[in-house]
Each structure stands twice: as C-alpha cells, then as structure tokens.
Write a structure and sequence with these properties.
Helices cover 24% and strands 27% of the residues. It is of the alpha+beta class. It is globular and about 45 Å long. It binds one DNA strand through loops. One of its GO terms (molecular function) is DNA binding. This is Exodeoxyribonuclease III.
DNA sequence: ATGACCCCAAGCTGGGGA
C-alpha cells in the first residue's frame, strides 16, 4: 500500500479554494499540508470537509496559518511547535496511519531586523529539539512545509536573491544542516541528488518564465520512512495556472 | 534610487512576504 502526501504554501486559502479543490480531485492525496492559509479557523473553506477530508486548522487573522487535510482518521498531537515561544500560527502536527505529520511554516526572517531574524533561528532550534525527541523515541514522522531556506547554492537561481537574504544566510543554512544531520532525510535530494528542483517563483519580474526560482519547501523523513520513499516531485504545472500561489505543491509518495 | 507582484485589513496606504 502506498501513501501520497503533499506540502503546499497556498498564499491565502480563500483566494485559492477552487485551485486546491481541483488539485485534490486530480491527485487524490492521502494528506495535504497547507501553509499561509491567511485566515482564522472559522473562515477556512468548508468544501474540503465536504469532500471527505478531515481537517486540522491552526489559523490567525491575516497572516500565517497552517492546515492538514487527511483522507484517513487523524489525531492532532500539537497546535504549536513545542519550545517555540511565539504565538504565530506556524505549526500543526497530527498522527495519521501511524505516521506523525509536522506541518510547518518557518519564519521568513527578512522583516523585523536582527530581532526578526533571531525568531527564525529560534524556530529552527525548537524544531531540531522536537525532531531529536521523536528520533530518540523511534517514531515514524515527517517534518514538511515552507522552511524558508535554500540549503545550498543549487537551491536558488543565481539572480533570485540578494546574498544577504535570510533564506541563504550562513546561520540559516547551518540551522538546516543541524536539523537534517540529526538523522533525517531530505526527500527531494534522495531522488534527485543535484540540480534544480524549485518550489517557489516570485510573482515579480516574470520569475517563473525565467525559471528564477527557489527550493524552500521541503519534506524531511525519519529513518524508517526514508526507506519507503518512492517519488518526490514539485508540481510545477500549478505555477502556470491563473492566479496561482507563488509556491507549488511538493508531492511525496511512500511505498 | 525606485518599483516591480500579491494578499490582507483598512479604507485608497502600508506591512509582510521571499
């Protein structure tokens, strides 16, 4: 039996309800993790529940917000990232089919000066601690979402970012490596060790047409799940749709 | 040096995004 799940920063679920509905019809994933839903729970479209998906929504007004849609029974385990002391709606976690799905929207870090950037590193520290706790307990888990980090120079087009951008700052990349090297597997880099696998293209400057993109949406797998990995694919077609999100779904299939 | 694009809450402008 295979399991298909995806991560998608949707940049307002209310603006893109129809796009997501259409995508779900065509792909029929077991689980879809959304970020930047940009609404409160009571504003989240009802259509997904009507289609038979269970929903776990952690929202707030205007900004951030994450949600998990699941075809299977779901047990919500966290509505905030343990150890992260900020109120923003950036993490929701649920156990589905014996697997823990941690759906995260990591702070961008470019706003609010160094104080704002430190919040990004704080989130990374808390996430790494949480991952190590689950590794020690030998849980099967996936940490997926918008990490707002390009792990290496191959993960952004040469002209896509300033060298001082928080997505490529050395401290951001070091924090990423500390997390991954705790014992997790970057799914995309198993099926495609090198080269471009962008998941984001800016709205400005014809970035998609020029393929001036970033790889910032990631799925990290615990050891046993890494053994089951079949395919990983950013769904680039979605970026060519009318009024798309600036991110595309990252689709993962496990055996 | 500035704006570019898009979303949101407000309210016709500004913050945040990446």
């Amino acid at each position: 039996m295979s399991l298909v799940f995806a991560s998608w920063n949707i940049n307002s679920i209310r603006q893109r309800e129809a796009l997501v509905s259409d995508w779900l019809e065509r792909h029929q994933p077991d689980v879809l993790c959304l970020q930047e839903i940009k609404c409160e729970e009571h504003q989240f479209p009802a259509v997904f529940a009507e289609k038979g998906y269970q929903t776990a929504i952690v929202g707030q007004k205007s900004y951030n917000g994450v949600a998990i849609l699941s075809r299977h029974p779901m047990n919500v385990t966290h509505r905030r990232l343990p150890g992260f002391g900020h109120e923003a709606a950036r993490y929701v976690e649920a156990e589905i089919q014996g697997i823990v799905f941690g759906n995260l929207y990591l702070p961008n870090g470019n706003s609010g000066g160094e104080t704002g950037y430190d919040i990004k590193l704080d989130f990374f520290d808390a996430l790494t601690h949480h991952a190590r706790t689950m590794l020690a307990a030998e849980r099967d888990f996936i940490l997926l979402g918008d990490y707002n980090v390009c792990p290496t120079a191959e993960d952004h087009a040469p002209d896509a970012l300033s060298p001082t951008d928080s997505l490529v700052r050395p401290e951001s990349r070091a924090a990423w490596r500390r997390l991954v090297w705790s014992g997790l597997t970057d799914a995309q880099r198993v099926v495609q060790p090198q080269g471009r696998a962008f998941t984001f293209w800016d709205y400005q400057g014809m970035a998609f047409q020029r393929d001036s993109g970033l790889r910032i949406d990631h799925a990290l797998l615990s050891p046993r799940l890494a053994e089951r990995l079949e395919t990983v694919q950013p769904d680039r077609e979605e970026r060519a749709k009318n009024q798309p999100s600036d991110h595309v779904p990252l689709i993962v299939r496990l055996q």
